[in-house]
User: Fold this.
Amino acid sequence: MSQTRHSPVLIIGSGPAGYTAGVYAARAMLNPVLVQGIEPGGQLTTTTEVENWPGDTEVQGPDLMVRMEAHARAMGCDIVSDIITELDLQNRPFTAKSDSGTVYTADAVILATGARAKWLGLPTEDKFKGFGVSACATCDGFFYRGQEIVVVGGGNTAVEEALFLTNFASKVTLIHRRDELRAEKILQDRLQKNPKIETLWFHEVDEIYGTDSPLGVEGIRVKHTKTGEITDIPAKGVFIAIGHAPASELVKDQLELHNGGYVKVAPGTTRTAIPGVFAAGDLTDHIYRQAVTSAGMGCMAALDAEKYLAEQGD
Assistant:
């Protein structure tokens, strides 16, 4: 028989937005329950050096998330290792079914499910996922010591991953479909100065190939975006870094989405179209997408939820 747990505030997600919401909601004596989800700590757990978190000149992403979780727990937030599989926002109290069988009910919900890596969508990409194809340099870079590898993308994530992978690889080829990177200038400068990195402009991945027994990548074929010419690049690892998509599957049929799946909130707030439901962090933010802005929105969501619940009690 499934267990039912009720709390004034249910927080779904455990990145900077979720944990900060947990800190503020707990301090407001709202007895929040936070369900961590499939990736406790969110995207920062797959990041290495974080140099733009205020108060830390440099901090490892996973270490920062461990500290944030500990902070939320210390404040009194009940943090649960579980995954929400179904969410009903149409009835009161709000109801969330989970992978463990527990049913969570709440008077207010804070959505902080973040975003997940995008993939190229190639059949051969699927074939070699986990066997040479990855979206996480910090998870898998170690396996490519002394090997030639490629990174696909042109934003901050791609450049950060390329730089990190030079700690292991003999050569890193960054493949970008245009001739200009979107990454911050400081990262571009580091990329250009690194002798292990070669940038291949105006190219996109056409195919990933390798061996079947054992399963493993041997290289990629790239196509010139202007001429269509195909080039083979030998590589043992292929790291896809083309951005992230908001994890809005739980609410796609219940809340208004925009800009490719981000949850829409009222300007200057975390309020969604459903009273008592709030959204924060990368789930809503298609512009800034920073840890510090996600944390700020987590704070806002908890304060918005506190105000909403107080008004319900009037």
